[in-house]
What we know:
Layout: E1 9-10, E2 14-18, H1 24-32, H2 50-62, E3 66-73, E4 79-89, E5 94-102, H3 111-126, E6 131-137, H4 141-150, E7 153-163, E8 169-178, H5 182-194
Parallel strand pairs: 5-6
Antiparallel strand pairs: 1-2, 2-3, 3-4, 4-5, 6-8, 7-8
Helix pairs in contact: 3-5
Amino acid sequence: MSFSTPVTLQGRTVRLEPLEEAHVPELVEAVEDGELWKLWYTRIPAPVGMAAEVQARLSHQAAGTMAPWAIRRLDTGKLCGMTTYMNIKAEHRRLEIGSTWLAESAQRTSINAETKYLLLTRAFEELDCIAVEFRTHWHNYASRTAIARLGAKQDGVLRSNELWVDGSRRDVVVFSILDSEWSSVRLGLKHRLATR
């Protein structure tokens, strides 16, 4: 089974659809919900750059380094964001879940937790991963909190790891979940989703 081949994953509130160019108009509408591209601590495509972003993710998929999805909320039937498996190291049975963004109206709902639950289940139970990583900007407190709430452990901070779009330095916070931790993380996520 290829780590870079996305398959449709569906839960109670979301469906993760393998990303395709036909998703672009709906993704433009989703990113306009909250003007997400204006957030200084993250890289989210502006409406005019959405087609190029989708094409870039599909190119990474063709190269075997990414599996990209569009996120569709089932209550409205609308796309509300994107997510990926990235930095795939199939030979080491590792990958990162990242390049995720959600429309403002989808934030602080069960959509992120269920999206991560579906991706983690596939990673650990179908792809037999030994570790799944998450990375975020030091200043993206909402993302750091959401990752920790999933049950991921903070591994450390890579200081001055990247130059940011404005030339500033980006400190990257690295989290991970190990295969030995998955059973308890899964229980926590299932309980969280059942109570929402």
